[in-house]
Structures are given as C-alpha cells and as structure tokens.
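Contributing new complexes? Match this layout with aspartic acid.
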Amino acid sequence: MTMNQPAQRPFRHRHLLGIRELDAADIIQVIDLADTFMAINERAIKKVPTLRGRTVLNLFFENSTRTRVSFELAAKRMSADAVNISGGGSSRSKGETILDTVRNLQAMNPDVIVVRHSSSGAPEMLSRRIDAAIVNAGDGTHEHPTQALLDCATIRRHKGDPTSVDNCLRGLEVAIVGDIDHSRVARSNVLALCKLGARVRLCAPATMMPFGIEHIGGDETRERVTVHHRLETALEGADVIMMLRIQNERLSGPSLFANNREYSRYFGLSTRTVSYAKPDAIIMHPGPINRGVEMMPEVADGDRSVILDQVTYGVAIRMAVLYLLGAAHGTGPEA
Ligand code: ASP
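Output block (do not edit by hand):
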C-alpha cells in the first residue's frame, strides 16, 4: 500500500482499545487514511459527508483539551452528529456507575463512543458490554492509542519512509523522556514505534521508570527498547525526542523528585541538552507542556519543534479512526 491511498480493506477491529491489539499493517492503514484526511483539513470547506447519519458520543471523565476537541472536530468534519459529555456534567457526579451511564447512552443508539477515564481498562470493560464501537481516548496509565497513532504519523512525515509497507520507521532512534511510569502515551508509543521498526530509548529518574518496561510488548519491544537514567546518554544521536509531562494528577504519597528545579536541571530539554541529539532531530510533546519543567520555551517554540504538527495530525488520525470504526463497511472517504 502506498501513502495517500484510502483504506483498501475493512479494518480488522470492532473497537480501538490499545495499540497492543494492532499490527503494523493496521497502524499503517490508519496513518495512510489520515494522510488523505489531512488534505481535507487544509481546505476552506473542511467537511465531507462520509459519516452522515452516524452518531459519535465523546465521553470524557478526565480533563482534556486536544483529544476532546479533535475528536469533536473529526466527527463534525465527517458530518457525524457529535455529542460531548464530561464527567462533571453527567450523572456520574450523582453516583451513577460508568457502566450504567454508558448503558443508558447505548439505549440512544450511538455508533461510536469515545471514552477517556482515569481507570486503566475502563474502555475494554465497556467494549465487552456495549454494542457501539468503543474508542479509548486515554485510560489511566494504560494506553492512549490515538496519541501514539498521531505521533507515528508525524514522525513518518518528518523522518520516516512513507513507501514502506510496515517498517516505515526502521532505523530511527526515538528518545522518550519524562514520567514514563504514569504515562499512557509512553506505553502506547513504545508498542507502536517498535511495531513500525524504530528503536526506543526510555529516560526518567529511577522513581519514574516502571521496572521491566522494556518487556511490555514481549520480544518485539525487548529487542528495541533501552532504559536510561541520564538525559545526555538517552539523547546521544537521537532522531526524535519526545518529552512527557510529570503526571501530577496520578501521583499520591511522597514526591518522586525533590522539586521542579532539580527535575528540570537533570531531565529538562534545553538548548544545551538538545545538542546531544542529531542536528536535525525533531522535538515532540503530547501536551499539555509544563514550560520550564520538562521543556524550555526556546526548545518548545524552536525550529525543530513539531508539537503543533502533532496537534494538526490529531484531527486527521481521529477522522480516520472514526471512519474505520463508524462507517464499518462503507465506501472510501468521499474527498
Ligand atoms: N494529553 C496526554 C494524556 O492525556 C499527555 C498528558 O496529559 O500529559 O495522556
């Protein structure tokens, strides 16, 4: 399959729960399709009738800016009816369980339910009890599959080999730095990057590095992932630098580092530390950025930053996912 070609085969999955369930061909299918939607998003009129008559419910029990808005825009640009429900504004705050909430929403016959929840596994639990297609928009520290898909699409566009069917990131060295332990973005990216042929260096203070993380995807990740506790070593010769936020909302008990200043000194990306990577390395962050902690403004806003490209790709990737799951066996996108 070449780039910019609409999906040639039906998507093999009923839900998108994690990258773990996808193989390289599935990932490429989503990214190729997203590339066709990128073109639509650049037009003056950014709407196609592809999902007309379908209903997408965006159910966010955790805060979100980019993911929530991009799922909503994705649904609307595909002409689906999109309804957004946040945890605080739903009957969850009156004591209803998530399963009851979703069963009631299911009774209104949506086609796709996009779920973000602080409990790892919540989307998977719902997928076993609900008819609608479930999309995981981030569950606890488990997975954030659409983030990893948009990250791989961004890396492929800047650094990869778009003609390769399943190894489009082969030979790339990707450093992921930050609170790996609490990061669903890191977990989904490790799985996705390794499936596409990249090598991954994970870097964090020992208190933020889960033991055995390199085994997360079995042989595929064990052979491709290395663990580092020194930023300079992790960045040496890297092609891609992905910085992560400290997940303060998931920390309980004693702090995992002395203070922001100390964390930033040893693990922050600055003009000095970025110089260890290749001169043309790209710099990524899933957002929200804590400026001055994991990343200095001059790097976040510098020439090599592709952080806003990631956001742009986010809409196209979510259009592709909604299309593949929502239109089920429909025709190709009417571009
Ligand atoms: N937005 C990403 C997430 O929801 C990363 C972050 O919040 O730090 O996991």
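Reviewers usually confirm one structural detail per submission. For this one: Residues 36 and 183 are 30 Å apart (CA to CA).
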